[in-house]
Design brief:
alpha+beta, five-stranded mixed sheet, two-stranded antiparallel sheet, about 10% strand, elongated
């Protein structure tokens, strides 16, 4: 498979803020190390480039001095908390159906440049994870974390005390093996082509305990930013602009840098699509403004400041240009 850049949702970071702070390390400093806005944690449905999540986890591992940081962080994650994707997968009636849903909807709902697979026969089964993202820094940390989400899918049906037969990782053999085996509670095979967990094939038909089944009428799909495909350049730029909004009005140089290109290249490629950076930025700001105006606890002035405007008057003029009505009338 051809390597390609991907996106993921902030929800896949789990409880990283509490986990890092609990080790005496500033989460704000870790995010600054990775050149990411810490405000992203307030919007778990928000998107970030997969390579930046890799880098964030690597920076956290260095700050905490823990080579098995991703695996340790993963002990507290739950698939059901993984945005709408996790709720959708958790609603399946059997483990086999849950894995099928996860494989089918991963790219559209949660994370691109990633493939989940299932192999089974002869009484054994393996759920595999293949990362197509070309970035390498922090890849191992992300993989360690992702393995726990895979384990939790099985635990949803097999019980929270369940442990895999073995865990496979692409990481090279080294001093972390002992730590990883202790964390996962299973033998760890290192240097494999894909990350994987192994379990008894019979579990694929295991039904979910009755107390974990969703109530009739429970919503499973929520409004979330669309995960851009690998050929959707404008959608990719829009997603990066949304990420930048956590620290004010998006800057073209910052967005271009996240995409690994110059300002001129970014503008040229957008021009080829018939759109400008300013248009994409305003579309992202308009969408974020509408979302914040729904919350009546936020004054219009507060919404303006969060979007990077100096005062409510400048924001109101911009909002009226976008929507035809001032913010107060829209609310």
């Amino acid at each position: 498979m051809k390597p390609r850049a991907g996106f993921t949702r902030a929800s896949s970071l789990g409880h990283i803020a509490d986990f890092v702070e609990g080790q005496g390390v500033s989460i704000a400093r870790v995010f600054a190390d990775a050149d990411l806005p810490v405000g992203l944690l307030e919007r778990p449905e928000g998107l970030l480039p997969l390579k930046d999540q890799f880098q964030l986890l690597e920076r956290a591992a260095r700050r905490t001095g823990d080579a098995a940081f991703g695996a340790r962080l993963g002990t507290g994650v739950r698939i059901a908390n993984l945005s709408a994707f996790g709720k959708h997968v958790s609603a399946a009636d059997t483990l086999g159906a849950a894995i099928a849903l996860a494989s089918q909807h991963l790219a559209g709902m949660l994370q691109t440049a990633t493939v989940l697979g299932l192999m089974h026969g002869g009484g054994r089964a393996q759920m595999t994870l293949t990362l197509l993202e070309p970035a390498s820094e922090g890849r191992t940390q992300h993989e360690q974390l992702a393995l726990w989400y895979m384990i939790d899918i099985v635990r949803t049906f097999a019980g929270q005390d369940w442990r895999p037969r073995f865990v496979a990782t692409t990481a090279l053999r080294g001093s972390t093996r002992g730590s990883l085996e202790q964390i996962y509670g299973a033998n760890v095979a290192m240097g494999r082509h894909n990350a994987a967990i192994s379990f008894d094939e019979v579990l694929l038909a295991r039904a979910k305990p009755h107390n974990l089944r969703p109530a009739v009428g429970d919503p499973l799909v929520f409004s979330e930013p669309v995960v851009p495909g690998d050929r959707d350049f404008c959608g990719t730029v829009y997603a990066i602009a949304e990420l930048a909004l956590h620290e004010g009005i998006p800057r073209v140089d910052w967005v271009a840098g996240k995409l690994g290109m110059t300002r001129r290249t970014l503008q040229r490629r957008l021009g080829a699509c018939g759109v400008t950076f300013a248009a994409i930025t305003e579309a992202a700001m308009f969408a974020r403004a509408k979302g914040m105006l729904i919350d009546e606890r936020l004054a219009v002035t507060e919404v303006a400041l969060r979007l990077g405007y100096q005062d409510a008057a400048h924001f109101s003029r911009a909002f009226k240009r976008w929507s035809g009505v001032p913010p107060s009338a829209y609310r």
